[in-house]
What we know:
- By secondary structure, this protein is mainly α.
- Helices cover 49% and strands 4% of the residues.
- α3 packs antiparallel against α4 (70-85) and α4 runs antiparallel to α5.
Amino acid sequence: xxxxxxxxxxxxxxxxxxxxxxxxxxxxxxxxxxxxxxxxxxxxxxxxxxxxxxxxxxxxxxxxxxxxxxxxxxxxxxxxxxxxxxxxxxxxxxxxxxxxxxxxxxxxxxxxxxxxxxxxxxxxxxxxxxxxxxxxxxxxxxxxxx
Length: 146
């Protein structure tokens, strides 16, 4: 399916004037496929991760860190989500790794160690995409005839 998306983009913009951007839900196979197809075509393709999925990962982490205290969990998750919105996703990932390491080291909290939250989503390893306002973007037009 990813290959078909690249082929359709090539059909619509054979001169590769427009920037291609992929929005994904954090599925590692999708991201790998996008990176592979982009590499084959010698393209730099920003990958944007659906914020809703990221918030779900952080919600699970917050619930595990603050069991029985949904208010504290919500405040912690909200703070991390704001950091992400301000471009600090790598710092949030580092925070999660640090908290996970401390959790594993403490006998009282070791039971919280769970693969569903101790690792940041694989999507946070991607580079920050170029903002649309920092470069010239050609106007969108109708698709060429089939």
